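Need Putative metallophosphoesterase's 3D structure for a figure. Predict it.
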Amino acid sequence: MKTQLMLFLAAFIMIFAGLNYYIGIRGWQAFGRLIPAGYGVVYWIVFSFLAFSYLIGRFAAQFMPDSLSAGLTVVGSYWLAAMNFFVLALILVDLLRLADRWLHFLPHGLKQFPAVTGLVVVVAVLGIVLYGSWNARNPQLTSYDLTIDKQAGSLQSLHMVVVSDIHLGNIVHNGRLMAMINRVNSLDPDIVLLPGDIIDENIGPFVEQKMSESFLKLKSRYGVYAVFGNHEYIGGHAEEACHYLSEAGVTVLRDDCLKVAGSFYIAGRDYSSRERFGGSGRKELSAVMAGVDRSFPVILLDHQPSHLEEARLQGVDLQLSGHTHRGQLFPFNLITKRIFETDWGYLRKGDFQIVVSSGFGTWGPPIRIGNHPEIVDITIHFTGEGK
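Structure prediction for Putative metallophosphoesterase:
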């Protein structure tokens, strides 16, 4: 396993360095003539700092002050997004240049002044990054009106708010958490559900910014329930995260199932690959739901929208998931769309329904292009006509 990890990291660093060199050399070809003689080294030092700031901030954090590590990570996060769009833009430019060798359609003046093309690319990427940053900080409200064909005790309907993938940390800080909580409270929900990736790996900012106290201000009639995603485990602080969230009034379900208000069940599955981070594998869903009276509605929280047939066969009525971010940055939405049966939105398969959220926060680049962050507002009507 260690050898595989080392090979993966080596391949990743080589590809990462190669892509950045591609951007750097194209930038030099565009603007090199404008840089005074002897100052080329300054260009490469500044560029290398941008290119590797995220990796240095993340993987050398133990050797530097927290504030420096956090600063490098934030700068590098923006560069990751810019890198993505620089690569796409430069590939397009190079394809146009290649086609021009045969078709000769590019103006001669444009070819004589590569700095013009370079400036257009830089301005375009800067515009995309600025828009994506604004977009990532302005979540939309996505509403669903669903029906479950079962009785739910005395309840005729249930109003739930779902917030996945908050990724609380240095980027999604306590100020944004409070804005989210205020918006959720304004919806006056019966129940609040958090389907994983609440904390973004490092629990330090959560503790230092006293985010537990913020969670205590989250209001609902039947409580706040959560499951863990991959990021609670990646940071190695899952047990601490569980402690602090529980202290803040959040019920963390780790392969557990609870009956709420004598009317419906909330089942919560732990992260599907938690054993990769030193723990044991999660329970089978049949074990999680052992003893559940399936004549009552069953709502499942599972971070990843995978293996949907298992939930359907176990009699789950509604599954709530996140994880995908709907790709977060174009063109990664094309990948998530291929990986998951549904990477965002609503899907129904017989009596089984699933809602996948694009999430509230971001991972890595604090930017979204091709999708929106969201808070999900769901009203479920219990028809009482079920079995």
